[in-house]
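ugh ok fine here u go
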Amino acid sequence: MTDIPLLPQVEAFLRRSHALFIHGGYVQSQSSQTLEVINPATDHVIAHVADANAADVDAAVESARRGFQHWSQVAPAVRGNVLLKLADLLEQHREELAQIETCQSGKIIQISRAFEVDQAAHFLRYYAGWATKICGQTITPSLPSFAGERYTAFTLREPVGVVVGIVPWNFSTMIAIWKLASALVTGCSIIIKPSEFTPLTILRVAELAVDAGLPAGVLNVLTGGGPVGQALIEHPGTDKVSFTGSVPTGIAVGRAATGAGLTRATLELGGKNSVGFLRDVDLDKAVNGIMEAGFLHSGQICAAAERFFAHRSQIEPIMSRLAERLGKLNIGSPLDERTEFGPVTHRQHQLKLEGFFAKARAENNTIIHGGRRMDRPGCYVEPTVILANSINDSLLNEETFGPIATFLPYDSEDELLELMNNTPYGLSASLWTNDLSKALRMVPAIHAGTVWVNMHTLLDPAVPFGGVKSSGIGREFGSAFIEDYTELKSVMIRY
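structure:
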């Protein structure tokens, strides 16, 4: 197996002393602290980034406020054109960005290219189209006049102000682009705080955004740990937070935002996403669906499935075929184009997954395949299949965010719906069947923000995405994001 060679510009970028990106360029942090960026495939330190402090936060917010004053007055078509140019630049620098992403996250290179760059560019172009279509409405007031006077009214959509975008480590480029595009197209400025594990790619994207014509201050990037994000949320100069991440952290973010003067919050959180296979589904199709739903990017996708329910008569052959497929996966370096399954993104997560394997054994679950840390350098764990004993087992209730598919049989379709809904979370779910009428009857009974039929984990920018119950507040994509990034102003006129 052979790794692709890193581009010279990638090697040069990694060797840099990475500063903060404030007001259109790099600024040295006022903190002397730095953070290591570690390649999870090799355990090697590949870069150092600044660990921002309170003074850096103040500087970024002040810059973002100045940027907002200008950007909010820019013509919508101009804003859209900047996003279009940025999309072009992402594609021009496709291989460079993909390699940086793979080096920092362990994501296999094919996924970095296809999702972190290609899909990100597609999302940018979709959002750019909304720039000229954000509008209010005219309203005829309902009450009668008192003395013959007349009234008319209309609404305006105005940008909320300075947005804080807190980005997770699993898709650090694409999710940053979602937040960046939502803010910029509505006339907001944004400060992005990437994960301390994967901070590099967005710094390069910020450079490209300037090349695309984005004015100074409209996009700032602050690297650092959790306290940086908290300081941004609680800062009196920020107006909204958009957070993607775990449920516990999301709850803390929501509380901090509320306590900081009712700062708006969009929370896209995780959960325990369910898959239900009806008896009419071909077994090979079911296995293909599980590979798609649970093992893409080692299961490190917020919408990935972790709970799999199959009819009692089919569950053993499904798990057997799945174990056979997983046993044939080409596990290796994410920079080798033949690799199909790479490491998880950081050591802490690897240790967390080992803890789940131990829980499964302690609760006498049956480990059909995997269930161990791999004996090799880097943060590798085996793709794992587990048969639970009951719906109350830990592996059916705690979010693993990893390559662990936990199964439980059902006997009736009513029981299947009950099992799928037996969770405090509700981000996504999927139902697999050849019977369209059954699907249409069952979908309304599934408590999730997104329900896929005969597919899983496909996100389209035209289709709103977000969770119910403990899996989040607000929606991204489609036209739904506009409500979260704008204020509605009502105007009434008497004449």
